[in-house]
Structure formats: C-alpha cells, structure tokens
UniProtKB/TrEMBL annotation:
Keyword annotations: 4Fe-4S, Iron, Iron-sulfur, Metal-binding
GO molecular function, one term: sulfite reductase (ferredoxin) activity
Family annotation (Gene3D superfamilies): 3.30.70.20, 3.30.70.2500, 6.10.140.1420, Sulfite Reductase Hemoprotein, domain 1 (3.30.413.10)
Protein name: Sulfite reductase, dissimilatory-type alpha subunit
The species this protein was found in: Acetonema longum DSM 6540
Cellular component terms per the entry's GO annotation: sulfite reductase complex (NADPH)
Source taxon at top rank: Bacteria
Domain 4Fe-4S ferredoxin-type: start-end pairs: 267-295
A family per Pfam: NIR_SIR_ferr
Family matches, as NCBIfam families: dsrA (TIGR02064)
GO annotation terms (biological process): sulfate assimilation
Amino acid sequence: MDELKTPLLDELEKGEWPSFVKEIKRAAAKNPGARDLLRQLEASYREKIGHWKHGGIVGVKGYGGGVVGRYSDDPERFPHAKEFHTIRVNQPAGFFYTTKKLRDMADVWDKYGSGLYNMHGSTGDIILLGTTTENLQPCVDELADVGFDLGGSGGALRTPSCCVGQARCATACIDSMEITREITMHYQNELHRPAWPYKFKIKVSACPNDCAAASARSDLAVIGVWRDALLIDQAAVREYVNNGFNIFDRVIRKCPTAAIDWDSQKQELELRTEDCVHCMHCINAMPKALRIGKERGASLLIGGKAPVVKGAMIGWVLVPFMKMEPPFNEFKDLVDKITDWWAEHGKNRERVGELIDRIGLSVFLKEIGLPPLPQMVHAPRSNPYIFWYPEEVEKHGEK
C-alpha cells in the first residue's frame, strides 16, 4: 500500500486534544474505505469544497429509517468511498454494555464496514460510519443476530436517550433507564417508519441536573423532580459550616429565588418551600446535608432543539409534575396527542416547538387538552392586547 500523505489533516493531530484524524488513520491501516475517506477529506481541505454528494436514498428491508445514505461526488478518484453509508444503531439505555456485546458488534462491523464508530452521536445512537449498499442488508441482519436494532432517522421518533439515573446517581427522582426502554419498545413503529413532518426526540434526565441535556436537545424532555420539600439534615449542615464552608457565598446568595437562609442563632438552614424551584444548586454544594424530596416524578418540557428552520430553542415547561410509574400510560397518551396534532398541522421540516411558536401555545394546549398553568409561560407577553375565545367571553359575561 502506497504512503498516504495528508499534510493538512496532520495539523489536526497536533496539540493536547484527541484527534479524529488519528483514529481514522488507525482504521485506514487495514481498511481501504477508511483510507479513501482520509484521502477525500484531505482533498476537501485542500480544494475548499465538500465532496459528499447531495441526495440519495438507501435502506434495508422493513425499515424506513436507520440508514443515512452517503455518496462521494468523485467516485473515480475515491473508489472505496463512493458509497460510505452510515448505520444508526439503537444504544442501550444509559449506555451500559458488556465487553462481549461490544466485541460482537465490532466483529460484524469489521466484516461489513470501515471499522469507524461514533460512540455516541448527539442523537444518542451508536454511529457506524461507512459501508456499501451491497453490505447494508447482511450487516443489519447480523447486528440483529447479536442483539442490536437500528435507531431512528428522518421524520420519525429518534432513538430515545437518557442518563444513567438510579443505576449510579443518588439524586435520581425517576428510573430514567426503565422509561427509555419502555418508550423505545412501545414506539417501534414510530421509530422505524418515518411518518412525521420532521424528527421528534425524547430524552430523559433523572433529576434537574439534566445530565442528558434533555432540555436543549429534545422536543419532549423528561426531567426528574420532586414535588414536596427537599430534605435537610441540620446536623450535617452545621458540620459543613463548622468546617469552614462558606454557606452564604456558596449556597444562600446563589439560590435563584432566595428560598433558603441561615439562622445563625439556631444554627439551622431555613427553607421556604413555596419559593424553591428545585434547581439542585444547594444539593450539589452540600450533598451530605441536603436530599431530594420524597414525592417524586417528572417535569415535561416541550420544544427544545438545535437550529435548523428557526434558531436554537430551549424546552419550556408543559407539565409541571407527572408521576412516572410503569407502564407510563399517562406519558404515552400525552405523546400520542402531541405527535398526532403536530403530524396534522406541521409543515415539512418544522419541529413541534416551531409549530407551537407559529400557531400559539394557547391553541396547542386547547388541542391536546391540557389546562394552562403559570409554569407554562415561556416568556412575558410582548404586546398589551388580550384576546379571548367567544365561549370565554360569554362565560365571563354570565358572571
């Protein structure tokens, strides 16, 4: 094999950070597809133009999604990268694997693909980078034989993803992994057969720390929370203070709603439960003294997304508190109402949060049957006019 020269890509290997170029070179040493990928990428840097061709649909039997077609626009120059399709593989909840299962998957991918992985893509899936159209079906078949299914792509439910939750986290309010597994199994048709205007993501974080970044990365975020007062161990608080912990600067002055205070005479931490917004800062600062409450469930946020049609959006509260208990029927019913309404009214490539922004939250709430609540206010009113539905005017007049 002739020497591969990539002077521009070599620059990306310099410095203290890990480099994707180094990993591609490792795969290129034994795989011609990875080798041509390097050559094409070097050409793109040199010529200042991308060499992936737009368009092209490819898939496997029984699935409408899960495979992203990728074709080189210069197949004669890069023959082993002329087809370089990506396979999205559904990851286990919480990203828990056994080494045997990873070896099984690696054996299949070495046989049919480039040997390159993205563990994990921003959507959560295991991303297998680079295979041919001919190898797609046997690769997916053998992945299924060792226990791996495809994830979502296109206008479908994207692969649900979550934090590790109760498996390792002391502040978990819900079983994020059980919720993720249940909705993955329940929505198999919506996952594998795209039928919606665009993608729909559900991500689950077991507590308000939001380690899955669900509020920013999902159309419907499930954030574990407690409804009652947080638990305070006053003796442990005093131990923090007596050991030199600056409770005023590190906790009390950083409470966003000024819900806590320190009584220096009683040597006790005081909490105004009605003002607490469960931001988790005090718990994170004093984990031995403060604990999440006993009445646990989840807040549901709607509309989070990265920028495409409209700019980046952070999810806002849709349901302040929902008990998340198996088999999660209340949650599933709400998902069905939201996606049915969105499928009927959404434009092509319009995410559900963008549709709500376009039509109005009041219309959305009326359509899915949720009563308006103060927690749902996304931003203060920007105009002074108040509009009423006719039936509300009549009802108001009767009073």
